[in-house]
Structure formats: C-alpha cells, structure tokens
Amino acid sequence: MGQDSTTTALLAGLAVLLAPVLALIAFLALVVTLLAPSTKAACTAPATPPAVTGEGGEWLATAYGPPWEGIQGEGITSTRINLQHDPHDYVIAVDPSVIHLGTYWHVVPNPWGNPKLTFLAGDTGGAILGKHIDIYDWEGRTAQLAWGTRHVTLTPAAGNGTAGVLEAAPTSAASGGGEGEAAGCVGAPEGPLPLTAAQTAKVLSGGLAAAPREAPQQVKDMIAAGNRLHGATYGYGAGHGPPLSTLQPAYDCSSSVSYVLHAGGVFGDYAWVSGELEQYGEAGPGKWVTVYANSEHAFMYVAGVRFDTSWKGTDEGPNEGENGPRWRVYPEVPQWATWVVRHPPGM
Questions:
Q1: pTM attached to this predicted model
Q2: Does domain 58-156 bear CATH number 2.40.50.100?
Q3: Residue 178 and residue 118: Cα distance in Å, rounded?
Q4: How far apart, in Å, are the Cα atoms of 145 and each of 17, 65, 76?
Q5: Is the pLDDT of residue 12 over 60?
Q6: CATH fold of the domain at 167-343
C-alpha cells in the first residue's frame, strides 16, 4: 500500500506539472486553427476587382496589336497569352494596380461594336496607367489608328445566372463547383443547373445550357461544367498545367473538352492536346457525348449541343462572336476540317 500511495502521489504531481504545458499546447492549436488558411480548396478564378476598378464611368481607351514590332512588342502578353498563336482573343492591357489581371470586362464602345463582348484583363503596358486601357486589335495598324483615343465605359463581366429558368435540378457538386472548386467563381452559373423537358440540351438566351431532365447524371455534370467555363477566355495552351479539378481563367480547345469530360467522370486529371483526343475513348459518335478532334482542334457535343472555342461562321446562337469555350448553335457539324470522331465508353 505504501508503494501504491507513493506512485499515486508522483502521478498526481506530474499531472500538476503538465497541466500548464497541455493548456499552452491547446491554446497554440486554437490560434493556428483561427489564423491559418482554410484547407478547403478555393476557386482559383480571379478575385472580384475592388470598387475603384470602373463600376461605370469614363476610361481612356487606345488600341494596340500587330504588326508586332517596336513598342508593340512580340505578341506575348504579360500573362503569357501568345497572341500570335491565337490572334482572335479579346484582351485589354490595364494598370494592374487599378484592375486585377485575369478579370473580365465589358468595354463600350469597342472596336467591334459589340457590347456583349467579354475582354480579359491580360496585359500591361508602360504607358497604361490609372483609368487607361489598351484594347488588343488584331485587324492591324490601320484599324488601331482609326480607333485612336476614345472614352469608354467599363463594367465587370460576370457569369449569367440561370436559377429559376425552365426547371431546376437539386444543387450538386457538379452544378456548384467540383472538387477543388467553389460556387461563385468568375463565369460560374448561380444556383442549380437548369433543366429542360426536351430530349436534347438547350442553349439559353444568356449563353448557358439547360440539360435534358431525363439525361444521365454524368451528362448533366458535363453540361454544368460547360456552363462553369462560360466566363473563361481562350488562351493557346491554357488549362494544360493545373489539374482539371481546378477552375482556370482561360482554356484552349482541347483543355476545355478535357475539363468537361473530367466533370463527367470519364477522363483523367490532366488535359490532353487535340491530337491525343483523336485516340480518346471509343471510335464513332456516342449516344450522349461525341468528341471531334484532329491535330489542330477539338470540340464536342453533349446531349446534342456543341461545346467549342471556335465560333467564326459556325455559331448562330447567343454566344455568336464571343471567343473562349461556349455552347454553340449551328445546324450541322463544322465542315472546315476533317475530324476523328470518338466517344466515352458507354455514352
């Protein structure tokens, strides 16, 4: 009994000595929890610009572009968009202390006379300071000089929400942001995926798509993924570095197709180039999903609606004239090239 009493006394003394240490450890853990960044993956789309970035009002606008020489540079923007590889991008050079790079804007008027165009703040310039933008114009020096110097109005370009249009499906991970994504990203639709009673998908007036109500969930997930890319711009080689679970501000043809397939659970974690998509899945058209590819370009149909970055002469819908991955309305498969036709197994 004497030995037991001694042991008990020693343990009690040790507990008294350790109590402050344990309390300190608990306190430090609480501080780390409160101050450390959340481990929940956040949307990687650009942050919403602050109020100073042109909620209306007049901005000075000039124009730049090819021929690429002298002060015009080499056609590669400060955000590494290669305008020589894909000349038909809508890009503006901005002062990054006033407008965040990677954000999207409507510019009215603009050299193309289309107020619906979405411009990416994707470049900078030594003379572009304060409320001054430089609009990339691929049509050449004559067009740039004709534009001259004008006053324009800038407004942030956001994704078009479709909640309450047609019918609505319950919100799912696909319609509100998949793994590595968060709802509310730039270009992401607000609310649940819209549905239609038709047998095929439908492109809505805002440019997003409604999925057939009776379509498989994988198809609905792909249409929701295509809607999430509505605010993205086109960038040659864009979207090929990070995993497809992370939403990016820009995509090219093959990375946008890869992104949509990935959302449906029928593709790997990283984008393929268009030549690789010639070997994707199984040969021939699918019941719900069909991929068209060659060594230069790729696009796809999901539930009868084309998803494509190419639009010139092959889009008659609400996204006509807008570059980047969009749902396209056209009565036939584009015939400007020869395509290898593939589809996901079982779809």
A1: 0.53
A2: no
A3: 25
A4: 80, 11, 21
A5: no
A6: endopeptidase fold (from Nostoc punctiforme) (3.90.1720)
